[in-house]
Amino acid sequence: MLASARLGRFGFALLFAALFGCQSAPAPAPATPSVDAALVAFGSDEGIARLARSTAKADFAPLANQFEAQLNSSFCGPTSAAIVLNTLRNRSADLPRDHGRLRADDLRNLPSGADPIVPRYTQDNVIAKGDKTRAQVLGEPVMINGVQKRDFGYQLRQFAQMLAAHGVVVRAVVVDDAKPEAAIRAELIANLARAGDYAVINYRREAVGQRGGGHISPLGAYDAASDSFLVLDVNPATADWVWMPTATLVRGMRTFDTLENRGYVIVAPR
After folding, report:
1. From the CB of residue 150, how many other CB atoms can be counted at a distance below 10 Å?
2. Under a CB-based contact definition with an 8 Å cutoff, are residues 262 and 214 in contact?
3. Do 156 and 265 touch, CB atoms closer than 8 A?
4. How far apart are CA 232 and CA 184, in angstroms?
5. Where are the alpha helices (DSSP H) in 20-145?
6. How many angstroms separate the CA atoms of 197 and 256, rounded?
7. 7-37: buried (b, 16+ CB within 10 Å) or exposed (e) per residue?
8. Which of 263, 264, 248, 255 is nearest to 40 (CA)?
9. Cα–Cα distance between 84 and 201 in angstroms, integer?
10. Buried (b) or exposed (e) across 86-107, using 16+ Cβ within 10 A?
11. pLDDT for 160-219, tens place per residue?
């Protein structure tokens, strides 16, 4: 009985590890990484100074105004999508109303016909239009190359498809060995210096010196003096917003997921 209990706890720990960090494909557990000294917390004096001198930060204020933290360990993709969609369509007349979080008695004292829900995209309602179901995001087994697997979170193209289903223009860029670092840097800088479209990265935390698996978060700015990008991490329970050197960021994206490497998406209004 004791052995069974221990095995049960061990199995739960493995499942939690698979979920933690939004990774879409559980990988063999690496040695615990040390925190990369090159990652500079946004809230530090140096972090604030980098934003102040940045000339590629058009996206920072709009995204920060809509920022929210993910609700569970598999929702870094839906959270990033909700932030970007709310930024693109802020105060639009056709924003959805998510009634899923209302309790049965929440309307008891409101006037007849009143709707207390603020119209906006949420981590829950953005999933509905994508091909990947909520159950699959949370680990329901799916067939991948003829093998049944748990595919937690979102792979890069799954994330891009979910965003595109909401009527925005999305371009996914796979960061494979053929994609030069200089080209990645140039495209992301151009995006961050231009208002109205946004960049979201898909990377592996261990590869950049953080704890966790695969992760998705928007970019907020670029600082030329330090050659670093501001990652607006949607899981503040795990990591701060950080300035990440270009080489480190590219290393994190140039990692293999379930079918191909990770990368980034560029999102623009239609």
Report:
1. 17
2. yes
3. yes
4. 18
5. 45-53, 60-66, 76-88, 134-137
6. 26
7. eeeeeeeeeeebbbbbbbbbeeeeeeeeebe
8. 248
9. 12
10. bbbbeeeeeebebeeeeeeeee
11. 999 999 999 999 999 999 999 999 999 999 999 999 999 999 999 999 999 999 999 999
Copy the structure tokens of residue 69. Answer: 């933290």
φ, ψ at 132 (rounded to 5°): -85, 130
Tokens of 48: 């604030």
Helix spans in the chain (H)? 2-19, 45-53, 60-66, 76-88, 134-137, 156-164, 181-193, 246-253
Give the position of tokens 């959270």. Answer: 79
Give tens-digit pLDDT for 214-255.
999 999 999 999 999 999 999 999 999 999 999 999 999 999
Count of positions (residues) in the chain = 270
